[in-house]
Design a protein that fits this description.
This protein is globular. By secondary structure, it is α/β, with parallel strands linked by helices. The chain has one domain: 3-Layer(aba) Sandwich (Rossmann fold). α4 packs antiparallel against α5. The chain has a five-stranded parallel β-sheet, sandwiched between helices.
């Protein structure tokens, strides 16, 4: 499976990716963890430009294309080979992030971003995207690092980000599932495990129906 954890910063994606990967490995699965943008040498350089260079102004389309460039490299180097080898991929963000940040909150129609992602990564679409959702004030208290260029746009902006994620989850409930990230990490981990198990069961049923 290809599983993505997404949502506003402060939701605990890094912690939950580690926990989910550990749970899956305990079941005997080979798990590859990655981040979008990041992980590859090219992706890390692009990430630095996108998130940590407030002195460089980026047009909305430029920002989108840089995210897609990092994503393309991640798919080519990491995700596609892992899936081809029968491994499970757990990724910190993927296409939905661009739909939210550069689409709903940018100047590019979200439908065009979805279409571009389908064309470029048609064989590497997530089986399940889990949005870790929590109120923005609570997320702010859990962010233990300096804010990046996008996060520093303020609470009102981050609330708009949250609402965009909620809208996407409502529009595509089969592919995007909401997880309440407000409780303890243990409780959130159990919610995630349940969603992954349900999706895995659904995939088995779909395969049997097609055979």
């Amino acid at each position: 499976m290809f599983i993505v954890l997404d949502g506003i910063d402060g939701g605990g994606k890094s912690t939950q990716i580690e926990r989910l990967a550990g749970r899956l490995r305990d079941r005997g699965e080979t798990v590859v963890c990655c981040a979008d943008p990041g992980t590859t040498a090219a992706g890390l350089q692009i990430r630095q430009l996108l998130l940590n260079r407030a002195d460089i102004a980026l047009a909305p389309l430029t920002e989108l294309m840089l995210f897609f460039a990092a994503r393309a490299q991640l798919v080519a180097e990491v995700i596609a080979p892992a899936l081809a080898a029968g491994q499970t991929v757990v990724c910190d963000r993927f296409l939905l992030s661009s739909v939210v940040y550069q689409g709903h909150l940018g100047q590019i129609p979200p439908a065009q971003i979805w279409e571009l992602g389908q064309r470029l990564f048609g064989d590497c679409q997530p089986d399940l995207t889990l949005v870790l959702d929590l109120p923005v004030p609570l997320a702010a208290t859990r962010t233990q690092r300096a804010l990046d260029r996008i996060e520093s746009r303020g609470a009102a902006y981050l609330e708009s980000v949250r609402q965009a994620y909620l809208s996407a989850a409502a529009a595509w409930p089969d592919a995007i599932r909401l997880v309440d990230a407000s409780p303890s990490a243990d409780v959130v981990a159990e919610q995630i495990a349940a969603e992954v198990a349900a999706r895995a069961t659904a995939r088995v049923t779909e395969r049997r129906a097609c055979s």
